[in-house]
Amino acid sequence: MSEYKRQNISSGSVWEPVVGYSRAVRAGAFVFVAGTTASSPDGAVGGADAAAQAREIFVRIGAALEQAGASFGEVVRTRVYLKNIADFDSVGAVHGEIFGDIRPALVAVEVGALAAPDLLVEIELDAIIGATSVA
């Protein structure tokens, strides 16, 4: 049986200790990034633009990956939750800006609601350190 050293990575969100989660968890070479939104005390960063929210989410996810010692190039799976599936094309285009050559496994689904009414998209992903894409 393998043992993996665990590293919890915090974003500093007030919800992390209340709900009991981490922005990301690294276990050995595996990195799991929790569902991430564009929430802020002043409302969703990006307003009513799902693509703008997605860009902010990827900034936050990039910071978590970096803290874990990983990069977007090592992402193997992404999950995109959309409040309205009609936003898939615009959010998918943002996903493609980051992952066009990396091409992780992806699922995108419409959900009934997210944590706040102004949130339009939530993204989570998994990475394996050392699993860089090869063409």
From TrEMBL:
Classification via SUPFAM superfamilies: YjgF-like
Protein name (database record): RidA family protein
Organism of this sequence: Cryobacterium arcticum
